[in-house]
Amino acid sequence: MAYSNKVLDHYNHPRNVGSLDKNDPNVGTGMVGAPECGDVMKLQVKVNPSTGVIEEAKFKTFGCGSAIASSSLATEWLHGKTVDEALQIKNTDIVSELSLPPVKIHCSVLAEDAIKAAISDYKKKASATSNAAVASK
Amino acid sequence: MKLPIYMDNHATTPTDPRVFEAMRPYFTEMFGNAASRNHSFGWQAEEAVEKARKQIAELIGATAKEIVFTSGATESNNLAIKGVAEMYAEKGNHIITAATEHKAVLDTCKHLEKQGIRVTYLPVQQNGLVDLDMLREAITDKTILVTIMYANNEIGVIQPVAEIGKIAKERGVLFHTDGVQAVGKIPVNVLKDNIDIMSITAHKFYGPKGVGALYVRRKSPRVQLAAQMDGGGHERGMRSGTLNVPGIAGLGEAAAIALREMPEESRRLAYLRDKLRSKLESELDEVYINGTMESRLPHNLNISFAYVEGESLLMGINDIAVSSGSACTSATLEPSYVLKALGAGDDLAHSSIRFGLGRFNTEEEVDYVAAKVIDVVKKLRELSPLYEMAKEGIDLTKVAWTAH
User: What residues of chain A lie within 8 A of the CB of B385, using their CB?
Assistant: First the structure.
């Protein structure tokens, strides 16, 4: 199969590879997929609690080149977006940016799921912290 | 050293230039139809065909009359299995095969199931080999055929063919083997191996594509096959159709070369394969060989690099032609059914690479391939959340994954 230049670029130079401290209250972690399905994405965001802006996004992906490229691209797009803006990212945006063929659409779906999972984890933590703050008053 | 490097010799092999030279005259000068009995054009073609028939027979310990030329192994497998099912329908309606067979065998069996034939698909053991006791138990008085491959196209394991043939013979059941990966690579002898019918294709042993053969035993027992194509009654009535004379000449020459060079070539390839394996194993942790090394083709290495997905690995070694059992590289988006049949888990199937060395690979190429694979696996493991988790001591089998 021929890969688009953008997929090749992300594969050869993946952006924002790495891990953030998953115990940090400002870090949201999303892990989607399963090893037996052939792809697992871990995507993490670090949010500035006062502005709600994503200051850092990191990923690690087990999967094909398109899965790696989709998650790498997602971290690039997340950077500087607010949590609510991040939720607007759609898998179809990833498909068109990377020119993914139909058989690789599930990679983009997985990336969107990873974004949603990371943000939902962050929101859960944030509300737990604010509840805790309320409770301690 | 020239790039890209071809190391996918289970898929196909390049035609040996000596084979190509043997074929060349039969395209334009000696173009006759081997079935033309009354002029020299036909005689020349027939002579070429009969020479090739002897050459392939000699390679497998058969007699020339037992060779039926076909278009390749898919046709040979279809003719063997359907031909037996139809010819021996009065004797029984049960066929035994194995889960790791090639699709040309499995799908032929599935086709027959729709017509009322009962098929037993034997599982294989974790080493990739069939369990002979299970085979014995599976045979009934309705069994007409056991069809089990000689050597597997993915994991290279060599089945205990002689024992399988013996068991079949004792029970009066015919034994067909798909010999595609074995013939021309390791010693195959239809008498010693108790084979009644065997499929062969030229392009797996440095012959041309589009030509194959079926060995059909003529003595003890005399095997009869119902033809699957109607026509001029060529090949003792078993396979009609004008013979592919240049292809057959190539098949014969490829067989003659294989017979001469096999001892030396298989030693050399086993050395290169073992070198590749030891390099990979010394530089990388958590690599797993799929299938037994004890009974295996000398040129095959099928290996899983845990926590790395096969297609992404192929992408990183794009100047090396190999293949993967990963779902992403298959048309069906399913991981290799052969690797799944070993029971090792789908995740290892997704992480597998098949190296198929061949006559034209050099030691320099093997060194290059080993270094490149090691480099890319290390890079992809840096990227792999699974490798990170495994290093943290997390048991990946206990994680609640969100399967999709």
Answer: 31, 40-42, 60-62
B404 within a domain of the structure (yes/no)? no
B296 and B157 Cβ atoms separated by less than 8 Å: yes
Grade residue A1 by pLDDT with cuts at 50, 70 and 90.
low
Task: For residue B32, give its domain range.
Answer: 17-258
Query: Do the Cβ atoms of B186 and B61 come closer than 8 Å?
Result: no
Quick one: tokens of B370?
């080993």
3-state DSSP: chain B helix, strand, coil percent, rounded to 5? 45, 15, 40
B210 with B279, same domain: the answer is: no
Would you say residue B31 lies in a domain?
A: yes
- Set of chain A residues whose Cβ sits within 8 Å of the Cβ of B316: 11
Binary contact (A38, B350; C-beta < 8 A): yes
Cβ distance of B385 and A36 shorter than 8 Å: no
For residues B336 and B229, membership in a common domain is answered with no
**Rounded Cα–Cα distance for residues B403 and B388 (Å):** 20
Domain finish residue from B258, B273, B305:
B258
Each residue of B384-398: pLDDT tens digit?
Answer: 999 999 999 999 988
Percentage of chain B lying above the pLDDT 70 cut: 99
Q: Of the candidates B351, B328, B349, B327, which has an alpha carbon nearest to the alpha carbon of residue B338?
A: B349
State yes or no: ipTM above 0.85.
yes
Mean pLDDT of chain B: 96
What is the tens place of the pLDDT at every residue in A51-101? Answer: 999 999 999 999 999 999 999 999 999 999 999 999 999 999 999 999 999
- Kindly list the residues from chain B whose CB atom is less than 8 angstroms away from the CB atom of residue A36: 345-347, 350, 401, 403
Residues 37-66 of A with CB under 8 A from B: 37-42, 60-65
Inter-chain CB proximity A64 and B345 less than 8 Å = no
| B347-367 pLDDT tens trace | 889 999 999 999 999 999 999
Asked if the C-beta of A132 comes within 8 angstroms of chain B's C-beta atoms, the answer is: no
Residues B153 and B284 in one domain: no
Match 């670090």 to its residue by tokens: A46
Q: How many CA atoms lie within 13 A of B131 on its CB side?
A: 11
Kindly name the residue from B11, B284, B328, B344 that is annotated as catalytic.
B328
Q: Are B399 and B388 in contact (CB under 8 A)?
A: no
Helix axes B103-114, B73-87, angle to 10 degrees: 30
B347 reaches A (C-beta below 8 A): yes
Cα dist from B340 to B68, B109, B197, B260, B346, whole Å? 34, 20, 28, 37, 6
Query: Any catalytic annotation for residue B328?
Result: yes
| Average pLDDT of chain A, as a whole number | 93
- Cis peptide leading into B246, omega within 30 of 0? no
pTM for this model (two decimals): 0.94
Residues from chain B that touch A68, judged by Cβ atoms under 8 A, are: 312, 383
